[in-house]
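Example record for the data management plan.
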Amino acid sequence: MRVDFYQLSRDPVEQVVPLLARKALQAGQRLLVVSGDGELRAGISRALWSEGGAHFLAHGEAGEAHEARQPILLSDACTAPNDARMVILADGVWREEAAAFERTFLLFDAAATQNARELWRSFRARDAIESHAWKQENGGWIEVG
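Corresponding structural encoding:
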């Protein structure tokens, strides 16, 4: 299992999720995007729909019709009816269910930095989890750990 920690210092979640989602789809993967905040999920949904043109990112909400067919599924729960093997924890909250996915992206802002650091340290002590840390710099993302 791999966990990628993304520290958001410049762009909001609604801009970062579409970037990660596009890469997941290009890799032939399905994706689950989790947030306990319904307003955040709605903002992410708008951002995915507004990609426009060739970059349109089709998606749906868990619990709606055809959820199993969605390439990107938005949910408040960390379960994947669409058989996703990748999950984005868009609200910065770790859920143990994320450990069942092949790859997890934990997005967090400055307010959640301390919690992310503690989680990072706990993962470093577990051999079964490969952890990577990313931060925004010069208009892109660089790996810092």
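Summary line stored alongside the record: The beta strands are 2-7, 31-34, 60-61, 72-75, 86-89, 103-108, 130-137, 140-143.
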